[in-house]
Structures are given as C-alpha cells and as structure tokens.
Amino acid sequence: MREAYHVELEQLADKLAAMSVQVADAMERATQALLDADLAVAEQVISDDAKVDDARAACEEQAYALLALQAPVATDLRTVLAAIHAAESLERMGDLALHVAKAARRRHPEPVLPEQVRGYFAEMGQIAVRLARQAEQVIKTKDVGAAKELESDDDQVDDIHRHLFTVLMDREWPHGVAAAVDVTLLGRFYERFADHAVSVARRMIFVVTGRMPGYGPGDDEI
Amino acid sequence: MREAYHVELEQLADKLAAMSVQVADAMERATQALLDADLAVAEQVISDDAKVDDARAACEEQAYALLALQAPVATDLRTVLAAIHAAESLERMGDLALHVAKAARRRHPEPVLPEQVRGYFAEMGQIAVRLARQAEQVIKTKDVGAAKELESDDDQVDDIHRHLFTVLMDREWPHGVAAAVDVTLLGRFYERFADHAVSVARRMIFVVTGRMPGYGPGDDEI
User: Fold this and answer.
1) The pLDDT of residue A2
2) Separation CA B93–CA A56 (nearest Å)
3) Could you tell me which of A91, A97, A128, B184 has the fewest CB atoms within 10 Å of its CB?
C-alpha cells in the first residue's frame, strides 16, 4: 500500500515537472512571437494553453485522490500540498505566456515593442524561461541549493523590470502612450512569471525543510 | 473527536471570513488614498498588510493541522483544500490593495490619477470592495447563488477596465506617458483583485457542489 502511494507521489512530481517544461516552452515561444512579430508562433502558444490548464486539473485531481485515499502525514502531506500550490503557480505562468502571445497577435503585423526596449524583453524572456526550467529541476531533485539560485535570477528580472520603468518615465520617451501601455503590461507579465517560478521553488524547499521561506509569489508594486 | 473537528473547520471558515473583511477594508482605504491623495490612509494600508500575511499563515497552518490530524474525506477534505486556496487568493487581494496604496504614496502630494479617469477608479474601487464583502458572505453562508452574483460584478470591473484602455489608447490622451503607466498598472490591480474575489467564491461553490466552475483567477490579457 505505502509502496503504491510513493509511486503515485512520484507520478505527481513528474506531472509538475512536465508542466514546468510546458510553461517554459510557452514563454520561449511567446517571447519569440513578441520579438519577431511571428503570428504563427503566437497562435501556437495561444492554442496550447488549454493543455496547461488540463495538466493543472490532472495534478489537482491526483493530489486530492492521494489525500482522500492515503491520508498522508508529515513530509508526504507537505509534498502533496506543495504540489497543489505549485500546479496553481505553473498554470498562472502559462496564462502569463498566453498574455504575451496575445499581445503579439493583437499588434501583428506591427511589432509590439519599440526597438529601444527590445533588448530588455529579450533578456527578461531568456531569464524567465531559464527560471521555469530550473523549477523543473528543483521539482525533480528537491535540491534546496538550486531553489535558492532561482531567487538571484528573479532579482535580475526585477532589476530589468525596474529599469524599464525609468526608461518609460523619461520625458524623452518618443514612442507614444499606446506603446508605453503595452510595455508596462508586458514588463509586468514577465516579472510575475518569474515570481511564480520562485514560488514553485519555495514550495519545494518547504517540502524538504518543513519551513516556508516567505509566502506566495510576492511582487513589486511596479 | 468528529465534533472537535467540525468546530475547528468552523474556526477556519471564520478566519477566512475575517481575512475577506481585512482585504475589503484595505481596498476601501487604498481607493480613498488614491482618490484623495491621502498619505496617512495610504500608510495605514501599507502597515496593515502584514496582518493579512499573518492571517494567511494562520489559515494555512490550521488547514495543515486538520489534514494531518483528522485525515478528512469527501466534503470535509474539499472544504479544507478550498480554504487553503481561498487564503492564497485573499492574501493576493491584500497585496493588490497594498500596491494601490503605494502608488498613492509614491506620487504624494500629487494625485496619481488625471481627473478624466478618476470616476472609473471610484467605481472599480466600489465594486472591488463589494466583491470582497460578498466573498465574506459566501464563505459564511456557502450560498451558491450569492457566489454566482459575484461573477456579474466582476464582469462590470472587466468592462470598466477595458473601457479604460480605449481612453488610454486614444490619440488625444493629454496626460502624458507617466500618468498612462500609472493608470495601466492601477487598472490591472483592481481587475486582478476582482478576479481573486471571484476565485474565492468559486472555491466555495466547489465545496458545496464538488464541481469547480473553471480554474483559478483567470484574467483578461489587458
């Protein structure tokens, strides 16, 4: 019985790791769609999002079944609850990639981003994708050290995001209000994506240590 | 034993209801601070946010203890899991009120909002606060009908939010890029606050019906 239970727990972790890969891929493609004004890639991200939602539902159902049938305690209970939270964050990361793709589609064939800020988004996109792939590793290895590495990558995203605002707020911003609104929202999508990746990693630390390093995907107010 | 368990479950629901009141009050004050450029009120919201975080931690700990010690099944299990999700959404609502208050503080003594959009925020603020208070009622009564009412209030917030973008995107927007960036982010904070209130209500429907009407606090990409 307990053996079967641990097999199921492993399957749940595998599902979460697969979700991390899904949302990393989604954000990679969404960023490509954004930078290259590539409509076909944007459409692919948009239609693939339903798979992320399904994966989340499957994770949650398996977690519920585990709780109801096995009544786990201690670390096993923490693992199942961390999985429920992680699935929620990963679904949200998928939504944020979807928002980026929809922005690319909305402005197509025009590029969304003025050339001046393109580099910032290329960099935020790269780090965001790396964070999602690191989250996959943390889920697989439950390595506390690796989880902490995510925090410094997240700090980089926050730095770029803040810098973006100084660029936007500059009186010399020449690209108009509509572009500023797009850049504001897109910057926030990347920043939140990174926050949620960190949140997934923190939940995994909780599984290992039993102590939660801060609650939830906290974010900057800008 | 089962008696003590249901008492604890009631206590958990009471804690969530109290959190709903906390975040409703926070958003009410944050909106006042925003509309009146009232620094003292903004500071109060900012310092009170730690209480919301503490309340969330307390909810989560009680929920974990219930799962570990009582191993609930069926509706009781769903109730505890819904409580964990609701606590997460409520904490997030507190963060969003905090962001509004911080925007008011950042621009003080200047008003954040151009007069032209002030009315939209007054209205979004009112509905957002009402949603949080309705969430409290749904938690207390588990009334599926009341939960559905929240959805139509949320639609109103979405409508105002979308209209705000048409105002911003108008070539005649005369208030400059910095104001547009503030309005963009603030609009999003209200919209997300409303989404999370709906998410709390949906979780309560799940408790009663065992069926989840859509996952998570889904949002518009603008």
Assistant:
1) 67
2) 22
3) B184
Which comes out higher in pLDDT, residue B202 or B22? B22
Enumerate the residues of chain B whose CB falls inside 8 A of the CB of residue A192: none
Tokens of B183: 């309005």
Determine the distance in angstroms separating the CA of A153 from the nearest CA of chain B, rounded to an integer.
22
| Residue A188 contacts B, CB cutoff 8 Å | yes
Cβ-count burial of B2 within 10 angstroms (0-12 exposed, 13-18 middle, 19+ buried)? exposed
Q: What are the domain boundaries of chain B? A: 2-209
Helix (H, G, I), strand (E, B) or coil at A141: helix
- The yes/no answer on whether domain B2-209 falls in CATH 3.40.30.10 is no
What's the pLDDT score for residue A158? 96
Across the interface, do A221 and B173 touch by the CB < 8 Å criterion? Answer: no
Spatial separation of the C-alpha atoms in residues B118 and B141, rounded to whole Å = 35
The answer to whether A192 touches A217, Cβ cutoff 8 Å, is: yes
Best B177, B185, B206 member to test A by mutation, with max A CBs in 10 Å, is B177
Q: What angle do CA A139, B192, A166 make, to 5 degrees?
A: 85
Chain B contact set for A92 (CB, 8 A): 216
- B2 pLDDT more than 70: no
CB contact under 8 A, A216 and B180: no
- Which residues of chain B are within 8 Å of residue A218 when distances are taken between CB atoms? 95
Distances (CA, A) of A87 to A48, A148, B49, B173: 17, 20, 26, 41
Mean pLDDT by 10 residues, chain A (222 residues): 80 94 98 98 98 96 93 89 94 98 96 96 98 94 85 94 94 92 97 96 79 59 55
Alpha helices in chain B (DSSP H): 2-36, 39-70, 74-107, 115-141, 144-169, 176-209
Residue with tokens 């949906």: B202
Whether residue A84 lies within 8 A of chain B, CB to CB, comes out as yes
CB B222 within 8 A of CB B105: no
- What local confidence, expressed as pLDDT, does residue A218 receive? 59
What ipTM does this complex have? Answer: 0.91
Cβ-based contacts of A73 with chain B (< 8 Å): 68
Structure tokens at B130: 């009402």
What does the pLDDT read at residue A205?
A: 79
